[in-house]
Design a protein that fits this description.
CATH architecture of the largest domain: Up-down Bundle
Distance between the termini: 32 Å
CATH superfamily of the largest domain: Transferrin receptor-like, dimerisation domain
Helix content: 40-55%
Shape: flat
Strand order of the largest sheet: 1-2
Oligomer: single chain
Amino acid sequence: RERERVKNLSPDLGGSQNRPPAAKTDNDVEVGDLGSGSDYSVFLQHLGVPATDIGSGGPYGVYHSVFDNFAWFKKFGDPDFKYEQQMARVFGIEMLHMAAADYLPEDYELYGREIVSYVQQAESKAKQTFGTQSPSFADAGSAAQRFQKAGAQVREAQNAATTRDSARLDRALIEAERALLIDQGLPNRPWFRHVIYAPGEYTGYAAVVIPGVNEAIEARDLGRTSAQLAILSGALNRAAAVLENYSQGRTG
């Protein structure tokens, strides 16, 4: 249904009716990493409230210069405001979809798949950094796979959900995200409590995934890496248990 809604919104922009040029297919949506520089930081990274950010852009040469103003945008950037209208339509459709959905449209299966890849990438980096002393990623990998599997089960429930079950389903989705928070926060910056996403300690706006683990590896701190792996595993297992409890209650 969502694909039908976006067809012919602005066909003169180029590309297909469903997506801009060079985008992935509709069935292969990439999950972006939320860093900082916007008001979603407090919601996701401190309170554990899922957030979304949509934008359209690319390199344009005047960013943060004296020429980065409305006059430049009107003359060179988007003179007819076609892309602005397109983004307003896309964001509007998303908001309407979220507001009118029978249950929260959150895909924990896709989320889990991304987390599994984050853990695998971190393990490769740790082996390059620590060599034979690299800590075991077995528990973190198992926890990530458990989370993905639990997310897949809930995804099936979402596809078959009725309005009678939506409140309980929504509660599970909400609590699963909050289970990814840690009370003590990340090392050196306790305000950031999310174990999956945070702005990098030294990257400004740019995000770092599983930041506790990755930043410990970058610091070449073996003990801290092991400790952060245990914290990550615990959070993922807590979140998976929330989703599993919902699925078991639904079938029991």
